[in-house]
Amino acid sequence: MALIFRTAIAALAGVFMIAAAQAQSFNNDRGLGAKGYDVVAYFTDGKAVMGSPQFTHEHGGVNWQFASAEHRDMFKADPSKYVPQYGGYCAYGIAVGGLYDVQPDKAWSVVDGKLYLNKDPSVKQTWLKDVPGNISKAEANWPKIRK
After folding, report:
1. What is the pLDDT along the chain (147 residues), one digit of tens a residue?
2. Is 8 left (phi over 0), alpha (psi -120 to 50) or beta?
C-alpha cells in the first residue's frame, strides 16, 4: 500500500514538474506569447497579425492573443498545432545553441505545418538557407536549452 501511495505521489509530482517546465519554456513579452501576435493568422492569413486583448486564451502559463474569436477557438481546440516551435524563441538561435528573442512580425516562417520565429529578417535568411539542417540541430539542442 505504501509503495502504491509513493508511486502515485511521484507520478503526480512529475506531472507538476512537466507543467512547470512547459510554462517556463515559452518566450513571452509581458506574459504574451508571440508578443501578442495571432499565431493562428500565420497559418490562415499567411501574415503576421496583431492579436487583441478581447480574444485571449491562456496556454502553457502564457496568454495568447488573437485577431478574432474564430482564431482563438481554433487555437483552443489544438494549441500544439499553432504554438511556435522552441517556445517561440529564435529557431536559428536554438539551432546554434543560443536563446534569442524574436520579431514575430518580420521574421517568421511556416514549414511543414509548424511555426518558426527568428530574431530578425537577416537571421531568418540564414535560417532559410538550410531549414532541414537547422531544424535537426534545433531539435537536438532544444531539450538542453529549455532546461
Report:
1. 544 434 333 333 333 333 333 334 677 767 899 999 999 999 999 999 999 999 999 999 999 999 999 999 999 999 999 999 999 999 999 999 999 999 999 999 999 999 999 999 999 999 999 999 999 999 999 999 988
2. alpha
Question: Using CA atoms, how far apart are residues 103 and 119, in angstroms rounded to an integer?
Answer: 6
- Supply the DSSP string of 35-79, one letter for each residue: GGB-TTHHHHTSS--B-EEEEEEEETTEEEEESSHHHHHHHHH-H
**Angle at Cα 21 formed by Cα 16 and Cα 23, nearest 5°?**
95
Note the pTM of the prediction, 2 decimals.
0.81
Helix H segments across 83-147?
91-95, 121-128, 131-145
C-alpha cell at 47: 501574415
- Please say whether the beta carbons of 70 and 142 come within 8 A: no
Sign of CA dihedral 130, 133, 136, 142: negative
Neighbours of 124 (CB within 10 A): 21
